[in-house]
Target: Integrase catalytic domain-containing protein
Amino acid sequence: MAFRRFVARRGTPFKLWSDQGTNFKSGERELHEAFRSMTPELQQQLARQKVHFHFNPPGAPHFGGAWEREIRSVKSALYASVGAQSVTEEVLRTVLTEVEGILNSKPLGYLSSDVSDGDPVTPNYLLMGRLDGSLPQVVYPQSEMISRWRHSQILTDLFWSAFIKYYLPNQQTRSKWQRDERDIAVGDVVMLIDLQLPRAMWLIGKVTKVMPSADGHIRTAEVLLKERTYTRPVSRMIVLPAIPDNMDTS
Model:
């Protein structure tokens, strides 16, 4: 059912990556058995889908580090926001769907062919082919959990606050006294982290000036953001990688 929901929402995938959880392995086995029991005509039609299951080696969860880290951040934020509360299925489904939108609006990088363009590349941009178009945020105090609608919005706000709290340290891991990391430089495209911002709002700007500290490292920088310059510590910045524009065949 999860696979059918995914296909209905995102289209048929080319590969499915997962660990060797019993639910995933059982799902693969059941799909294969169902395929073998079909008539040759149905098999020929479904074979064109070419969905391939790719499993990590047993006992190697680190092979899926990219998505396992995201899952851990989401779980930590959900525990902090929902916790042991008893919520209706409709409220929980609304919160999880809004969480999906928040995660898919997170910047991945920027197109290297147009560094002056402040619009980052996000999962939603790749999935929908356009910029994110989320609805405006509605903020309610926690004391007003009256309707299911307000309850869902309050829980989503709590998730956003907790997610930023857990997400930022994961993106700025530093190995003190072991190796030197590259300092932020003029021209870098960065994402500014502000815990006071509304949810799913990611500030993307370009570093225009750096301020070296006494030890020669960059601790503060000026960032140009929508024709305004902000001075922020580098601890509140995440450098976005440049994504090559493969569509430029010239």
In short: The two ends are 44 Å apart (CA to CA). The chain is about 40% helix and 15% strand.
